[in-house]
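Prompt: Have a read of the protein record below and flag anything odd:
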Amino acid sequence: MAHAIRFKETGGPEVLRWEEVVVGDPGPGQVRIRHHAVGLNFADTYFRTGLYPAPLPAGLGVEAAGVIEAVGEGVTGFSEGDRVTYTGSPLGAYSTERVMPVGSLIKLPDGIAFETAAAMTMRGLTSSYLLRRIHPLEEGDTILLTAAAGGVGLIVCQWAKLLGLNVIGTVSTEEKAELARAHGCDHVIHYRSENVAERVRELTDGAGVPVVFDSVGKTTYASSLASLRRRGLLVCFGTASGPVPPIDAMQLAVQGSLFVTRPALADYIADPAERAELAGELFDHVGSGRIDIKVNQRYALEDAAQAHRDLEAGRTTGSSVFVL
């Protein structure tokens, strides 16, 4: 019998339930996948708490890797036995197997393990569009990256070095600082004991940085704005501490004609050709060893509630996966 994590009401980790489910056969345009590994992402907590609305009852999770067991009518480009990974709607990745639309699937090269794929598909594609689509960064540019020791942070640090960028990263502990440095972060700021904007100005001879990649949100957006150089760009791509408060447009002018964007991965992988291009570059870096994916936490899927507690308490580093 197949199993899945589901929730009937929004709330804390305790609302998550391990249940038997009936999967069935794929319909037109669908496949049935048996998962080998499932990704754990901070965005999963947003659905659980209701920050991201979802019809209830609901499954959870948007990222996993496994093998196609059955193919529905009209599916082209994928066959039974194909190794695949995916990130994106619909919810339901927290499951041993599932039926889902073929549109989100990406073929997984043989040289990349299922756990690696589940740990990096969302984070890696996010890193890809941040560095390759958001802003025309040039070799020698300096960027500020919040949560530099997180799953996205460690990938961005490594990829940024491949592009010749200088990385200033923020962290909460010395353990995380060492991890960030080991992955290419040039300068580390302990945000709990240092003034981030002041340190950024010191490190950039008073100029500030052209781009800040901020995945924390509510508690960091003000210091992120203050770290930008004139006409700089704040990229708010996550809200780990809560949603970014309303931004006064006049303050953007006063602080140096600044720009702010709140991108979503879905809009950068909606086009199949662009998704394939971003994924191809990611898989090439990972497959060659130029980017190392750290799976630092592994959980059984039925322990999803504890995994969420660890994630929200900041007890994780790098990527976390559920192993089936």
About this structure: The mean pLDDT is 94.
